[in-house]
Amino acid sequence: MSLKGKHALVTGGSRGIGRGIAVKLAESGARVAVHYYVNQAAAKETLERVRKHGADGFLVQADVSRMEDVQRMFGEVRRAFGTLDIFVANARPEAAKFYQKPMDITLEAWDHAMDSQAKAFLVGVRESVGIMGQGGRIVAVTYAPGGQKGTWQPWVAMGSAKAALESLVRYFAVTLAPRGITVNSVSPGLTDDSVLNSFPQAAVDTARAWHASGWTPMGRMGTPADIGNVVALLCSPDAAWITGQLIHADGGASLVDTLLPLEMQRG
After folding, report:
1. Nearby residues of 217 by Cβ (< 8 Å), 6 or more positions away
2. Residue 172: which of 133, 139, 134, 131 has the closest Cα?
3. Is residue 216 part of a domain?
4. Which of 28, 43, 87, 209 is most buried (most C-beta within 10 Å)?
C-alpha cells in the first residue's frame, strides 16, 4: 500500500493518535504537514519520526477553533505542497476547555467544542477541496459513543460536536463523490498514549484492566499505530469505493452488549 507522491495534512498530529496517523502515512510514502496548537516540541518529534521513514513535511501551527487560523493553515499547506491529497481532521482541544455537565456547561465551552470540531471540519473540507485533485481522501477522527450515549455527562459538548462532525462526513461524502474524493470517519476505542494518559493513573489502570477483562474482545486497548493503520487503509487507492462510512477501530469493543454481564456473553 503505497502513498508515495501524496501530500497529507494531519491536524492534532503532534502526539497520541495524530502522531500515529502521521507516522503511518509517512511510512507509506506520503509527505506530511503536522499541525499543532501549542506543543511545538512534540510536533517536532513527530516530524522527526516522519523523516526517519524517508518522507518529509513541515509543521503548521493553528487554533482550529478559530476559522481564520484554519484558513491560514491551508494557505500554508498550499504554499508548501502546492496540492493536497489527504486531509485528516484529528485535532481536539484539551478537556478543560469543554468538560462540563449538561446543566453546568457554559455557552463559551459549548461553542469551543462545536467550533473546534464541526465548524473546523466544515471549513477545513472546503479549504482542502480547493487544493485537492481527483481521488482525494478526507478522514475525520471521532468518538462515536460520545454522540450516541448519555452517561459520560461532562462529555456532552464534545459528544454533540462529534455527532455533528459525523453528520458532515456523510453530507460531504455525497457532495464530493463525483470528484472521486472519499470522506469517512474513524472512531477509536480507548487508546494508549492518547487523551487517556491525561487522566489520573488510577483511572488509566482501571481502563486497561476493564478492556483486558474482555470488554474489548481482542483483550487490550488500542494504540496510535492501530489507528494510523486504519486511516492509511482509508487513504489508499484501494479504498476508493468506501465513502460516508463510520469505521469503529476498537478491537471489537463496540460489539459488546452492555446490557448483559460479560460472563453471560462469553457463554
Report:
1. 251, 252, 253, 255, 256
2. 139
3. no
4. 87
The dihedral of CA 247, 75, 53, 180: what is its sign? positive
CA dist 130 and 84 (Å) reads 9
- Angle (CA) 217-223-226 rounded to 5° is 80
Q: What is the CATH number of the domain that holds 14?
A: 3.40.50.720
Residue 265, SS3? helix
Domain residue limits at 42 = 7-192+224-249
- Check: CB of residue 73 under 8 Å from CB of residue 100: no
If one counts every other C-beta atom within 10 angstroms of the C-beta of residue 247, the result is: 18
Taking the chain (267 residues) in runs of 10, the rounded mean pLDDT of each run is: 94 96 98 97 97 96 98 98 98 90 97 97 98 97 94 95 98 98 96 77 85 88 96 98 98 91 84
Q: 24 in a domain, yes or no?
A: yes
Work out the number of other CB atoms within 10 angstroms of the CB of residue 50. 27
Domain count within the chain: 1
Buried b (16+ CB within 10 A) or exposed e, 100-123: beeeebeeebbebbbbbbbbbbbb
Positive/negative CA dihedral, 189, 194, 195, 198: positive
Give CA–CA dist 233/159, Å, rounded.
26
210 falls within a domain: no
Residues 236, 1: contact at Cβ < 8 Å?
yes
Residue-wise pLDDT tens digits, 193-219: 777 777 778 878 888 888 888 889 999
> By C-alpha distance, which of 171, 232, 202 is closest to 21?
232
In a domain, 197, yes or no: no
Q: Is 264 helix (H, G, I), strand (E, B) or coil?
A: helix
Residue type, 91: A
- DSSP, collapsed to helix, strand or coil, labels residue 154 as helix
